[in-house]
Amino acid sequence: MEPNLFKYIWRHSRREQLGILSTVLLSLPFYFLALDLPKGIVNRGIQGQGFAGPDSTRAFLAFDLPFGEALTGAPVALFDGFALTQPEYLLALSFAFLIMVAINGGFKFVINTNTGRMGERMLRRLRYELADRVLRFPIPQMRRVKQAEMATMIKDEVEPLGGFIGDAFIAPAFLGGQAITAMAFILLQSVWLGSVAAAIVLVQAFFIPRLRRPILRLGRERQLTARRLAGRVAEIVDGATEVHAHDASNLERADMAARLGRIFNIRYEIFQRKFFVKFLNNFLAQLTPFVFYAGGGLLAIFGHLDIGSLVAVIAAYKDLPGPIKELIDWDQRRNDVQIKYDQVIEQFQPADILDPERQDPDADAGPPLSGEIVAQAVGLVDDNNSKVLDSVSFRAGVSQHTALIGADESGKDRLTMMLCGLEVPSTGRLKIGDRNVEDLPQAVTGRRLSYVGPETYLFARSVRDNLLYGLKHRPMQDAADRGTPARTLWFAEAARAGNSTLDVTADWIDYAAAGVAGPEALTRQLIEVLALVEMEDDVYRFGLVGTVDPVAHPDVAEAILKARAALPERLAAVDAQSLVVRFDPERYNGNATLAENLLFGTPRKSEFAGDALAENALMTRVLGEAGLIDDMLSMGVSIARTMVEIFAGLPPGHPFFDQYSFIDADSLPEYRNLLTKLDRVGEGALTVAESLSLRRLPFAYVEARHRLGLIDETIEQKAVKARRLFADRMATVDPGAVAIYRPDAYNAAAALQDNILFGRLAYGQAKAEEIVGGVMTEMLDALGLRETVIEAGLSYEVGVGGKRLSSSQRQRIGLARSLLKQPDLLVINDALAAMDDATQTRLLDKVLEHRRGRGVVWAQQRPRAGERFDRVIVLRGGRLVAEGSFAELSKPGSALSDLLAAE
Amino acid sequence: MSIEQEVEILRKIPLFANIDPAKLKLMCFASERLTFKAGQSLFDQGDSADSAYIIVAGAADVIVTTGKPSVVAHVAKNDIVGEIAILCDVPRTATVTATSELTALKVTKDLFFRMVTDFPEMGVEVMRVLAHRLENTTADLIKARAAARG
Asked: What ipTM was reported for this prediction?
């Protein structure tokens, strides 16, 4: 990257900078005029210079040919102007002043917006360039960077650059122009005053930047310490388990305190210096007016200077310190951002950064790989100068199945990475066909080859997106809105900032690479691959608890409704109809909470969910209308009494409070007092808050579970009435805030299995969940909905880094992702390690069977697995110790036999 | 059946005879009441154990399988089953299968231990029940040995 920030800015924004500069130049005459007018207003307009008497007139806007007198000997009038009396003249000048103010304001507006836009463009370019570089970092380099530091640099540290870029050339031009104009004006009025002002400005310009130099050094330190702080915070988050497990939180606290202390000291010193400089600057700036008032006043008194000029000088001077100060500030910022820029870009220039051509989006995957993998004396030396691989040579057919067997430190993992171009040999050559792997573009290494490592990274998206990640190399099908004026403008702007113009909203999926024709076939393929890695059942379960958008998938919603209708019959067939109590708009469901019975739907907004419902104004009104308020209160009292009675002896913090109580340990005494008060003075004396705290209790009450006998038939009827009132109100007030249960409609807010169940499991029925779950699965299979459910499961969000999945699930998805793109050569590096031996063996067989006729290189630790491969290569301590068929190598005394014996 | 009724039933069981009704209510509140159909098993031999069952209504067979299954005992209302496995942390030593519709309170291991520690009377009562069983078993063993010798 360009080391000099100014050159970088100039190269990429020359045209815009020049455009804005010329606008600035154009604005200067108007600025001068605006300065000159007050003098005219005071001298001629108010004091009446040039007016002989009240009735005499003066020409306004008379305009002579410039230098006309010098050329022709007499002034050449181009325009004689308007003859105006003194008051008219004053008003004319005043309005002219007003117009100048407007024009100057207009210039400022145009210049500022253009400058801002240019700055943002440059910032966008710089950030993009940094991100682009991160994408081109070689993988070994990536092991050394802290991601949080990278993120801070791209996001925060370059931010001030954006503000500065707009000002880089324009500010000095604009401010300098202003300062020079003001200076020239003052000099024209009085050479003496002007010289004094100029001298003070020079003193300022000389000393202030020198005083500020240490501040810059401190700024640099601050930047580095803050960046490292960000890195440490990220480390604490990532290593949270270790911190807790080793009781190291206090060490981390001390570390944080030390870092913050350093930052504090740096900042404090910056403040001290900064405010001292400010003080000095202000003092110097105020010294000039002192000279003007004292010296200029004396000159005026003795008649060497007219008062109008003095006023104008003072008015002009008002405009001088501003630009000067800003110029000095600009210089400070220039130094500051140059340092920031240096510090950022030095982190983004690793020696062996990938050539952009290797990631060219237009590159072609080329013909299918064929021939042999040839390793010729491949060696790898790591950062510490130790040999990871030492002169490894072998040959293997690209379409053969090859096992790389060795222990953890045998170097097999790095060898597999080299095979996929993720790492470069330090010595020797590694070829596939007859091409060096390190020269292959990623279009080949990422499409014809596929690497699966032991630590599969999953992106925080759905299972589906993660599976398809390996098929998205470039846009395959334009988005529908490509070519609309808005989008064209969008991409033109991206191009102007040097950004990629590939459309992220396009369809990037390479269907052909997955061997399918389109989206539908692809889904089937996904399910097949998931079945192959034995992940189908897991995704099926995700699907059951996931939601489906009935608008996008009307067929699914319809099928689920069919299943809902068929459920009672199926349950009856296994004599299990009593295990589910279904929702009936006309009946109270004793196995659901009172809240659910009232809401009779799935809340989509937090104000209708959980505890908030008790305080919801609409719900309270509806309860009043249904005559339930008093009942709720007496139910609340019953619950409170029971809780106070049975939880009385338990120490606070007892697990029962969390598990079974309506009331937590802390509020138990509160409720006890409340009940005492109630017994003494009666319900009428309760405050609103007190009665609410009692009325909220029954919301979570489930008759079948809690068995306090609180819900009788009258209450059931009232609750059903309230439910109906509530639904009616909601339909007008806030439709969509609660997805109401309707027997014949799909509930988009509820999980798929809840849509089928459309009710609650009956409490107290042994093995209800198991039996009903079994019936549902059977029924979904029979209705041909299994795929649909899995499809819904594909939308399951895997969480940051796939943390919502187990490590073996992550590995399965990683493997599936690589299988899906059907590479010519699949390279697997211990990618099943999180699974048990039996599963590993089963998956090994399945994958090899699936890949019959297509190449596999599989690095692993278990020598026995070598039996299943055409060819076995044994590595030990970075050296190749044996190569051949499993039969040859497992003979007594050969390299593999020791390993086999040790297994 | 409401909690109050359950508490009444529990109070009739010797194990809980001396315990404060409020504590029994807590136990009822904190335990699940499960209904089993005839033929359904409460738990199976060899399963890992997480709870004991107090039979509130109905009856069940205790079946031990060594080679072939044989019924070693009958349990019915007011009996407690499954406490051995949670007391000594071993897998279920027998299968218990309902012979009629059966209702039981499922007392989790946590709750059971808490009740026993909180109420020593209940601990003594559990010991008494276990001692009775041991006595019966010993008697059976002597009988069996005599039969084998005879």
From this structure: 0.79
